[in-house]
Design brief:
Helix 11 runs antiparallel to helix 12 and helix 22 packs across helix 24. About 55% of the residues lie in helices and about 10% in strands. With about 600 residues, the protein is an alpha+beta fold.
């Protein structure tokens, strides 16, 4: 773009300085790193726009809107008058989401219920917003989608009585604009206009300024969504949480916080989800945007911001170089997910949780009392999980040179964590949470071969020694119903952060599964330290439903603590085999005490 037709030049080859590559590969990156990534993202957006224009061509049907070329010309004129403003607009994350989504529509790889001209018309809305920001005179027809005309970054206006897919005119002069509606023109920023809300907070001289994007149709990172204005109480709540979260980040983790001030542009609020299970997302096309459910407190928000900003950085790096060239034969264990993950997803996850571990490490050095215990627990939990995943990734032949460098850099970071001391109680609780998640995951997704189960069943029924465990190679069969595999960790978070709430759960444990997905009353007893009641509870569960992953995993934790040995080893390393043989024995009319069977399978 610009006076000499920047979009017609050969694409610039972007390179990151060596120190920034090293910083990113170790999980970090400073403000200058983000500045270089933003330069990459600007070019990426221009390439997206160029690809879109090349596919559409000058004669494409745009319904009631002017030709796409007219919108492009207006965008170029706006850039000539105020290149900085238009640059900022191009870097609006939802512009990237729109461009990526519309390219997929044009290539037939994304579904849509709207006519194509409605999605193409976002370019017309973008051009109108650019012209307003640049202060030039213009008129442009823009789409009305789901009853709203939206100008990116500026806001939206309801257009009553419009069809679901409709159009209206926007005009402007000297930075003032208006949008036509059946009830008359609405001035941009005036009565009837819904301004895009924003939050600007400061801590120790560092400013975070973000939009709370509740209006842009492409804010949910996947497919268009109608606007939903935030109420005043909602805005106040988000403002308060962002203020506190930013103060916490700057105070405890400035190396993680300050790059956000340069590269975080918008937060997309979503309704709250189950406690301690925040929903959040980001996308490679949307540098600078994170979507998240409403957090319960500032610490939860700070963790989520670190999590998603890690994804944002890695997404920009992926625009320069791939991390892997293919996928392994089967999907992989991710300790932060309920489902098996592809290699690319596991790389994204370990990068995000490297940042989370650094955050909790920093907080653990600063916080005291209950907050300190929470930080130690979370640091110990994620330190172990990240290290385990990195060891697995290091063996993957599909990694590119950059991918291997990333894994090596993160491993060096993880190595530095190992000398940090953690008090015994949160350390033990973290190790139990790690073991519980892994056992539940195996029970949901791994299946021992039928012939192996048959062989073990025959030997058990005959009173013989068990077959060789080395021959057991379970297959991966993803369970689509797996959910709440982190239930033990979530209950530990309840205990650490809300002791009164945790005791209320214990006082009425029967409906615990509706409060904490995946949890059972025996899990409450275990987290509370009541091992005997937990053991009885797990055995009772298995006597009525021997398939329950949580009961087998919990029984393994009890045995590891109270009776370490073969039974605990089997439920740690081969829980899916113990369960499958137990089921087969019972189907044959036999009897198998879960602990005795586990001890037999785990015997050396």
């Amino acid at each position: 773009m610009g006076g000499d037709a920047t979009v017609n030049r050969p694409p610039r080859q972007h390179r990151l300085d060596e120190q920034h590559v090293s910083a990113l590969c170790s999980g970090g990156g400073d403000v200058d790193t983000i500045a270089q990534l933003l330069a990459v993202e600007r070019s990426w957006r221009l390439l997206q726009l160029r690809a879109l224009l090349d596919i559409v061509g000058p004669d494409h049907d745009t319904g009631p809107l002017p030709p796409v070329g007219d919108a492009w010309d207006l965008l170029i004129e706006a850039e000539r008058h105020n290149p900085a403003k238009v640059d900022d607009l191009l870097l609006h994350p939802q512009v990237g989401v729109w461009a990526g989504y519309t390219l997929r529509l044009l290539r037939g790889t994304a579904p849509s219920t709207a006519p194509l001209w409605v999605d193409l018309g976002y370019l017309h809305s973008l051009a109108a917003a650019a012209a307003l920001c640049a202060g030039i005179d213009f008129r442009m027809i823009v789409p009305v989608r789901d009853g709203f005309a939206v100008l990116p970054t500026l806001g939206a206006v309801a257009v009553p009585e419009a069809e679901r897919w409709d159009s209206t005119e926007v005009h402007g002069s000297a930075g003032h604009g208006a949008v036509g509606t059946p009830a008359g023109e609405v001035r941009v920023g005036g009565d009837g206009w819904q301004t895009m809300p924003s939050v600007r907070v400061q801590a120790d001289g560092h400013t975070l300024a973000v939009r709370l994007d509740c209006l842009d149709p492409y804010r949910n990172l996947r497919a268009p969504t109608p606007p939903r204005a935030l109420s005043e109480p909602e805005l106040g709540h988000w403002h308060g949480l962002l203020t506190q979260a930013w103060e916490l980040l700057v105070k405890t983790s400035p190396a993680l916080a300050l790059p956000m001030a340069r590269g975080l542009f918008s937060v997309v609020p979503q309704p709250p989800t189950e406690r301690f299970r925040t929903m959040s997302a980001s996308a490679g096309d949307a540098f600078g945007c994170m979507m998240m459910s409403e957090p319960r407190d500032a610490t939860e928000l700070a963790v989520t911001m670190v999590h998603e900003f890690q994804h944002i950085k890695l997404g920009a790096l992926l625009h320069l170089a791939p991390l892997h060239t293919g996928e392994p034969a089967r999907r992989l264990y991710a300790p932060w997910r309920d489902d098996p993950r592809p290699l690319g997803g596991l790389l994204q996850g370990v990068y995000a949780f490297a940042g989370i571990t650094e955050f909790w490490r920093s907080v653990s050095r600063w916080a005291t009392d209950g907050a300190g215990t929470l930080a130690h627990f979370e640091f110990a939990r994620w330190r172990r999980q990240v290290r385990t995943v990195l060891a697995l990734l290091a063996q993957m032949p599909q990694l590119t040179e950059v991918g291997r460098r990333l894994v090596a850099g993160l491993t060096a970071t993880a190595d530095r964590w190992q000398t940090d001391s953690v008090p015994d109680q949160p350390l033990a609780a973290a190790h139990d949470a790690v073991a519980d998640h892994r056992a539940r995951w195996r029970l949901h997704h791994l299946r021992p071969p039928a012939e192996v189960v048959t062989a073990f069943t025959k030997c058990w029924n005959a009173g013989a020694e068990r077959p060789d465990l080395a021959a057991v190679a379970p297959a991966l069969e993803a369970d689509p119903n797996a959910q709440g595999l982190d239930a033990r960790a979530v209950l530990e978070l309840w205990r650490l952060t809300d002791s009164a709430g945790f005791e209320r759960l214990r006082a009425d444990p029967a409906p615990i599964g509706t409060r904490v997905t995946g949890a059972a009353p025996a899990d409450l007893a275990l987290v509370a330290g009541d091992r005997e009641n937990a053991r009885r509870g797990y055995l009772q569960e298995l006597s009525t439903d021997s398939d329950r992953p949580g009961a087998w995993a919990g029984l393994g934790l009890i045995l590891a603590d109270t009776l370490p040995g073969p039974a605990a080893d089997a439920l740690r390393d081969h829980p899916e085999l113990v369960r499958a043989v137990h089921r087969a024995v019972r189907m044959c009319g036999g009897a198998a005490d879960p602990v005795q069977l586990a001890a037999w399978i785990g015997s050396r």
